[in-house]
Amino acid sequence: MKIPFLNFDEMHYPLRSKMIEAFTNFYDRQYYVMGDSLKLFESEYATFSQVNYAIGTSNGLDALFLSLKATGIGPGDEIIIPSNTFIASALAVSFVGARPVFVEPRRDTYNINPDLIEDSITSRTKGIIPVHLYGQSAEMKQIMEIAKHHQLWVIEDNAQAHGSEFNGKITGSWGHINATSFYPGKNLGALGDGGAVTTNFEDLAEKVKSLRNYGSRVKYHNTELGHNMRLDELQSSFLSIKLPFLKEWTQKRRQIASWYSNYLKDLPEIILPEIHPNSDHVYHLFVIRTKKRNSLQEHLNQEGIGTLIHYPIPPHLQEAYSSLGYKKGDFPIAEELAETSLSLPIWPGMTEEMVIQISEKIWEFFEGPN
Ligand SMILES: *Cc1c(COP(=O)(O)O)cnc(C)c1O
């Protein structure tokens, strides 16, 4: 049986008629951007995130950019981000003219190590972007304390962790202003690009609303230099249909993760995900680690099992960031993770048989057929 890295059947098939009905309504209403569907989804997503405001955006990168821009972070400022993250976290910092300053993750949870943050704070530091990598919340209590002590903004990158929690408090509600993505493959995905900013602060919410829409609150009255970074009506209505099912899908991801852990725990050659005692994991990705990553991936590929690497090159070693002047060896933990991580399939609808099949192929790779 072939097992793809990602498959939407279980999530999308039961919603097919609702989705088509939403499209029909959208089509007939002839209102495509900045209408009632956006407003409705924004209020639903704010409720879900336990914040006062959610503002739909064109995608996750733009949500991060708008969050940073709303706080006034700009040229000359430094923003602390984990050294092992998707490039978007760093790009948003660069696009407001600030400099990303990388801090190493913990070797076990893969999230930014709060104990190392203070060493990287300078007089130019204005904020911290914790990334809830792979679906596990970063250590938000300590991060918020450090930020308060040094008067820094906290902007959560919640693109991979919709509905995750730290100390029982949901991600996307900890920081002053937070960003998420609804890229199709995320735990809550649109059928195209989308994103959102969440915040409890009215002034920041108003600023983001203006910046995402040409710097105007009243049509053709532009009070600042804004952007076009809006979430459209169609994607908003699709997201409203999918949001009520997110909890159920997350439960399924957790079940699959526990099957993997069960079938792989006795295999000494691989490292399984570890969860911080106060964190919650929504398993956007199920990432294992092994020194033989590349040949394991090749073996699984030959067996028809799809895997991906998140991420093969850390931001500080990307060609796009050569101007920052980093070299190999500067962030050894991030580099080691990039060389050893492998993401196994984890999508609602996977059965225990599929997990057994994948696990058997992994055992076979290390120990030979028995
Ligand atoms: C996906 C992702 C983003 C960017 O979201 P897009 O919608 O693709 O722009 C940002 N940060 C992280 C950690 C992501 O995984």
TrEMBL record:
<keyword id="KW-0808">Transferase</keyword>
<keyword id="KW-0032">Aminotransferase</keyword>
<feature type="modified residue" description="N6-(pyridoxal phosphate)lysine">
    <location>
        <position position="186"/>
    </location>
</feature>
<protein>
    <submittedName>
        <fullName>DegT/DnrJ/EryC1/StrS family aminotransferase</fullName>
    </submittedName>
</protein>
<dbReference type="InterPro" id="IPR015422">
    <property type="entry name" value="PyrdxlP-dep_Trfase_small"/>
</dbReference>
<dbReference type="GO" id="GO:0030170">
    <property type="term" value="F:pyridoxal phosphate binding"/>
</dbReference>
<dbReference type="GO" id="GO:0000271">
    <property type="term" value="P:polysaccharide biosynthetic process"/>
</dbReference>
<feature type="active site" description="Proton acceptor">
    <location>
        <position position="186"/>
    </location>
</feature>
<dbReference type="Pfam" id="PF01041">
    <property type="entry name" value="DegT_DnrJ_EryC1"/>
</dbReference>
<comment type="similarity">
    <text>Belongs to the DegT/DnrJ/EryC1 family.</text>
</comment>
<keyword id="KW-0663">Pyridoxal phosphate</keyword>
<dbReference type="GO" id="GO:0008483">
    <property type="term" value="F:transaminase activity"/>
</dbReference>
<dbReference type="InterPro" id="IPR015424">
    <property type="entry name" value="PyrdxlP-dep_Trfase"/>
</dbReference>
<dbReference type="InterPro" id="IPR000653">
    <property type="entry name" value="DegT/StrS_aminotransferase"/>
</dbReference>
<dbReference type="InterPro" id="IPR015421">
    <property type="entry name" value="PyrdxlP-dep_Trfase_major"/>
</dbReference>
